[in-house]
Amino acid sequence: MKGFFDTRIEFLKGVGPQKSALLNKELEIFNYGDLIQFYPFRYEDRTRFYTVSELSEELPGVQIVGTISKVETIGGGSKRRLVAQLKDDTGIVELVWFKGLKWVMKKIQPGVTYTVFGKPSRYGRKLNIAHPELEVFTRGHQEPGFLQPVYHTTENLKRRFLDSRAISKLQKQLLSIAYSQITESLPGSLIEELGLLGKADALKNIHFPEDSKKLSQAQLRLKFEELFYIQLRLLKLKLTRVKKFRGKVFGETSLINEFYHQHLPFALTDAQKKVIREIYGDMKSGEQMNRLLQGDVGSGKTIVAFICILAVVGAGSQAALMAPTEILAEQHYRGLAPYASQMGIEIDILTGSTKKSVRKILHQRLQEGQLKILVGTHALLEDKVKFQSLGLAVIDEQHRFGVAQRAKLWSKNEDFYPHMLVMTATPIPRTLAMTLYGDLDVSVIDQLPPGRKPVETVHRYDQNRLKVFGFIKNQIKAGRQIYFVYPLIEESAKMDLKHLEDGYESIRRAFPEIPLSIVHGKMKSRDKDFEMQRFVKGETRIMVATTVIEVGVNVPNATVMVIENSERFGLAQLHQLRGRVGRGADQSYCILMTDVKISKEGRTRIQTMVRTNNGFEIADADLKLRGPGDLMGTQQSGVLDLMIADLGKDGKILQVARQKASDILKSDPDLSLPEHLNIRRQVALQKKSSLNWSRIS
Ligand code: ADP
Ligand code: MG
């Protein structure tokens, strides 16, 4: 059924075929519904006027009234600019234009009083406003104060006169014909209970806020709705899966007792015991487990996975353990193989570099069921890899794997789905986990094994490098190993590589008698592995590297992590890197090197790292600083293309939305009650929508 909001955008008065093509292409606005849900991303406060003396660079766009006293062009070539002085009773501020000088020059006249709107910024010691909006000021003819919506546009759109103002005009036009067509999309009971604005009112106020109170009500209403339907969808998926897919039941086995009493080399932490209980609970429930195991670096996730694997192997089934790189797979294999062989369990490893002849035998042992535990990389996903009976699949370091790959593992069995345990050391704040992994249950290891000394983190300036080198000399004398990490990002890869190589040279000169390794992403993976292994074995004492070493590598003898240009790394990455040290008995150190001059945000990140070792605290800080779109591993998820909600800020709304969605599904799993008609209709509408749900299911 086609409704009013499916009307193609070109039919809106003022649009037409050309603009419509642009809106399609640049903003993915195809129909009325798309346009009305294209919300402003901020609002300019035109409710008050500022004086020149009140201006500061911290302010957003502001409105001032003043008289132009002087207009001149300064500089030549690409530096040519137009500078005008705007004067009021309290002082003078400069207005600057770099483009469209001719046009502006015609428009502004000395001696005339204007209303000016723009963002103050600092240029040298003076404040100025670049490319302000100007309107001749007419006393008495002022519009009453209002909040001006600002829409995202693109250069292309602006060139064709579709700037924020023009979009606002289109919204006005649309609302004038659409308002009466807007139907409520939440159940009346919810609206009443939570005191939400109605849908039509919310849409009107999001585009044309009556005042700031109405605006925040509109935002709340629309954010709630967005999050509510995401959660409803996720929870429904989970319900369906629970009903449809039975899980094989795995209970206690004697293998577990044997391991606890004869082989386990240390006592488990309470946190490890707790998550093992949660996982066992799932595996014997008869339902298929889908659990996310979060635990900070070094919290001991591997042994937890192994103990869970024993439950499966003890019952005659098989288990897979998949890691994102060969180094990590290798490390897991070497860690677990001794236990397995002591207990007479066959274990093997499969990666991209496993020889064909070896592979063939391995495939056979796997299919016949002799081989019980298979550790490996993506290679495990190949169709040729067939298990006789895969009972549990463990995926380490989730953020490197897509959900599609999870699904691929599910399908490795024909008669039942294997239990899934996804492990991650990237601490994901709860709000984000609820959305990204809304269909998974979450367990958290919130405790480190005893005796770990927290890594001591310090911030040092580049000019004090000699002192840092002195400290490192002593650590090496004491037998320890050192990491030096350099940033390397695609955009500046060439320069970064040069930094890395220069850095390597200066380290080599400072430590002429010490064997070094160097590893970076531009090397062949075989060479990388080779160098890495030399460091792991202690043949080299210093590792100079890019972030390729960030995930999971375990060298307990490494005690110093020096991070160069550390202000360029994100918090999640810094935390991962720091997690590479502090794995042994000795006190470890993380040294964050920077220039003296760094951005405010960079400084905040470094201060956060110096202040705390707690991964979750860091993740929260990260979410606040950067917003969820940039958090590690979520960039491509697509789930985070939210229209209005912000997972960094709207955690509380999300929690309520999830609770309400869960309550409703509990009372009415099929959403068949009359009072849930609005929900049914909305869910049906969303089925057609562009959100790519397959990515998160
Ligand atoms: P991660 O959670 O980062 O994957 P690992 O599983 O690699 O951590 O464990 C880090 C180190 O801690 C390993 O050397 C492991 O043997 C050790 N370990 C794990 N659990 C305990 C424990 N309960 N007591 C002491 N050491 C432990
Ligand atoms: Mg690990």
Give a structural overview:
- This protein has 697 residues and is an alpha/beta fold.
- Among the domains are: 4-43 and 153-181, DNA polymerase, domain 1, CATH 1.10.150; 48-143, OB fold (Dihydrolipoamide Acetyltransferase, E2P), CATH 2.40.50.140; 254-285 and 300-424, P-loop containing nucleotide triphosphate hydrolases (Rossmann fold); 456-612, 3-Layer(aba) Sandwich (Rossmann fold).
- The chain is 40% helix and 18% strand.
- It contains 23 helices and 22 strands.
- The chain has a seven-stranded mixed sheet with strand order 6-7-4-3-2-5-8. The protein has a seven-stranded parallel sheet with strand order 12-13-11-14-15-10-16, sandwiched between helices. The chain has a six-stranded parallel sheet with strand order 17-22-21-18-20-19, sandwiched between helices.
- α9 crosses α11 and α10 packs parallel to α11 (301-314).
- The longest helix is centred in the N-terminal third of the chain and has 33 residues, at 212-244.
- The two termini are 27 Å apart.
- It binds adenosine-5'-diphosphate and magnesium ion.
- Residues 301-302, 396, 552 line the site of magnesium ion.
